Amino acid sequence: MPYFKKKFFFIFLSFIIFSTNFIFCIEKQKDTINEIDDTVRVRALNNSAFKFRHRHSEKALEYAEKALKLSKEIDFEKGKMIAYKNIAHIYKHQSLFQQAENYYSNSLKIAKELEDEQEIADSYTNIGKTLSGKKEYVKSLEYYLKSLEINKKIKNKKGISKSYWNIGILHKKQKNYNASLEYYEKALKIAYEIKDTSDMIVIYANIGNIHLYTKNYEKSLKTCEKALEIIKHKKKYIKFSALILNNIGELYREKKDYEKSIKYYHKSIKEKEKIDYQKGISISYNNIGEVYLIQKKHNEAIEFFEKSLKIAEKLNLVEVKHSIFESMSKASSNKRNYKSAYEYYLKFKNLDDELNQKESYKKITQMEVSYKYEQKRKVQEKEYSLLRNFTISFSVALLFMIVISIFLFFNIKEKKKANRILEIQKKEIIYKNQELEQKTEEILSQKDEITEQTNLLLKQNKEITDSIHYASRIQTAILSPQNLINSLLSENFILYLPKDIVSGDFYWVTQKNNKIIIVVADCTGHGVPGAFMSMLGLSSLNEIVNKIFELNSDEILNELRNKIKNSLHQTGKRNEASDGMDLALCIIDFENHEMQYSGANNPIYLIRDGKLNHYKADKMPIGIFPKEKPFSKEIIHLEKNDKIYLFSDGYPDQFGGTKGRKFLTRRLKKLLLKIHKEKMSEQKDFLEKTFFKWKGKEIQIDDILLMGIKI
């Protein structure tokens, strides 16, 4: 019996231990399942965010943020890394490049902690793309090269191809087309090795674009056709097909076959509609509008710009809106709707900081209104206090006189006659006081009316002045920045003294094909009319120089004259506006030590070895002219330490001196010969001091612009 009891005890004890362990294992397994469920949820959310990132950005962002939150709660590092990357993708798609860079950097940090080299390489690529979007091309290239190095290390051929491809895009953006083609060819070779059809298609499309930019239309069309041959109506590649059809539309637009261009843009839109690619549809609508604008079909152009803008505003496509606003400004100007043209131009120039400026202006206005109200209230209180004191004093005095009159009337009967006289005098005083009060009220009423009219005039004057100051900021913004000029021309100065708040003179410096283009221009008039002409001149120069491949100073002036005449609808008829501009244009080729010069009424000076050489301009303006002929070009050999001076006529035409006469070009030549050996900054100071000393108390009659360059 004891034996059985002992055995039963051990069996019972074993059962208890087994049951406890079984329950513990179930609970542990349950925890594991919950953990697995959470990580699965994170992956599902991240997959959904990636899937919707282009079509439904708001929904995609919601999924990605949920994935990030849950990953942080369960400490799931890989989930956080992917969520950060997805959020960055969405911001990059919306052209919010700084936010995208911040999130990609967070993803990169986790990838380094996890030692995931593939993710590190991808993060470097993504950061490079955001920097490229911000036009920080040097830093972008650094990140692409880091990605290329890691992809080579881990032998990821697709990653190597992508790196070459991205570097090719970077060179294309900087118009280094030969270098871009070289990298695309490397990427294409690898795409064929790994049989990556999608990469082949996109690379062919990009190569086609480069041939389009270099005006090799035949090669461009053949390359696009190769890409379309690979696609062959495969649904998987509809987006690529749409992009290539859009590129063919671009090609025919460049060839000026506008009917075929519009036809291919519409084909592209049909493909994009199949996959609901809204951004692409917006771009194609904008392209169709551009073609109609070239054909001067302004109503059709505006119709398609508005279609494009509707989608661009919905998706916040900043670059597309930027292009649309510029085109809408041109279309409105061509229709002579100058108010709309100006409004769209302001939107075009101020897209980035428009909301901040509005909010700032609103706050300033509210503060100004509050201040004026407080000041007015204080004045009214002071006036009311004075009027109240006057009324009290007057009432007391009047009461005192009445009491005395009554006292005299009842107590001094023998002086009735005197009392009557006093009564009459009292009535006269009351009447005069009433008359005085009435006149006082009239004066106060007139004062209020005058004050109100004065305030209205001040307000209107301020609004006009504020608008002109705002236009001045826009004009300053579109002039070539000094840091850009310093990077292209190491020693230079610009003396720029507008007569009014805005100026009819402008300068422009840019680089293309390793050549520096310099323009100093003087538009018809000054102030607001001159400023409008300067904006037209700057935008036209930008368009012309970006369009042409070979730089010739005379061809640029001929093309500029045609654009100005077309924009102002100048035909040479009687009583027609003859607005235009005088300018000097130089193209400096530092490699070959030579300079092209062409001028419309504006000469240039070159000082070498203490001798001043005067290069004369053609005697005709940029604009309508009775005896038009092609502009001429002069090739000038350059030597080290040459000094070149470009200027408008404001400086030599200024009245002043002891006899109130013009400064004249002969004095300007002597002055430049006197100071040409000084540093460029010191030359500017000397010219400025001389100008104001000469002007004295005379008014400034024109805008002043004088540029100096040392070779």
Detail the topology: elements first, then pairings.
Elements: H1 2-52, H2 57-73, H3 77-93, H4 97-113, H5 117-133, H6 137-153, H7 157-173, H8 177-193, H9 197-213, H10 217-231, H11 238-254, H12 258-274, H13 278-294, H14 298-315, H15 318-334, H16 338-349, H17 354-411, H18 416-478, H19 482-488, E1 492-497, E2 505-512, E3 515-523, H20 527-547, H21 553-567, E4 580-589, E5 594-600, E6 604-608, E7 611-615, E8 622-623, E9 634-637, E10 643-647, E11 655-656, E12 661-662, H22 664-675, H23 680-695, E13 704-710
Antiparallel strand pairs: 1-13, 2-3, 3-4, 4-5, 4-8, 5-9, 6-7, 6-10, 10-13, 11-12
Helix pairs in contact: 1-2, 1-3, 2-3, 3-4, 4-5, 5-6, 5-7, 6-7, 7-8, 7-9, 8-9, 9-10, 9-11, 10-11, 11-12, 11-13, 12-13, 13-14, 13-15, 14-15, 15-16, 17-18, 18-20, 20-21
How would you summarize this macromolecular structure in one to three sentences?
The protein is an alpha+beta fold and 711 residues long. It is built from 23 helices and 13 strands. The strands form three sheets. Strands 2, 3, 4, 5, 8 and 9 form a six-stranded antiparallel beta sheet that branches. A five-stranded antiparallel beta sheet has the order 1-13-10-6-7, with helices on one face.
Written overview of the protein:
The protein is an alpha+beta fold and 711 residues long. It is built from 23 helices and 13 strands. Strands 2, 3, 4, 5, 8 and 9 form a six-stranded antiparallel sheet that branches. The longest helix is centred in the middle third of the chain and has 63 residues. The termini are far apart.
